[in-house]
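F.,

This is the one I mentioned.
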């Protein structure tokens, strides 16, 4: 619902501008032009607010001992690494796989399924071929 309201608030003036000017061929009031030019560039602000309100509320609710102001909670939520949000989901924490689990262009697997470097495999193949 919040995303729909943000989207509607952004594009309602441009829609009105389109219908007045292009469909009905009437002059568009200058106020509509100004409102469209103000609200379209700030459409990302609505998404930012919608995304951060649950995080801010979560930070405010967690700090029972020392109550935080809205400003302090906003700063703390902005610099946090993620975690639980007020809606029960997870934050934007990015986890990286361990280096050994990332496939490398220079590695391959042998018949047993263990990984080895291509150079080591070539060395084993040449020693097997020479015997």
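My design for it:
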């Amino acid at each position: 619902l919040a995303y729909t309201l943000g989207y509607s608030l952004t594009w309602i003036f441009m829609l009105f501008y389109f219908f007045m000017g292009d469909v009905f061929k009437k002059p568009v009031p200058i106020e509509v032009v100004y409102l469209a030019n103000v609200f379209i560039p700030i459409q990302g602000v609505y998404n930012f607010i919608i995304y951060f309100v649950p995080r801010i509320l979560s930070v405010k609710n967690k700090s029972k001992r020392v109550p935080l102001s809205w400003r302090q909670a906003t700063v703390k939520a902005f610099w946090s690494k993620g975690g639980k949000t007020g809606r029960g989901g997870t934050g934007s924490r990015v986890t990286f796989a361990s280096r050994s689990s990332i496939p490398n262009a220079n590695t391959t697997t042998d018949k047993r399924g263990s990984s080895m470097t291509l150079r080591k495999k070539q060395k084993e193949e040449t020693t097997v071929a020479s015997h």
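Residues 85-101 have pLDDT under 50 and may be disordered.

Talk soon.
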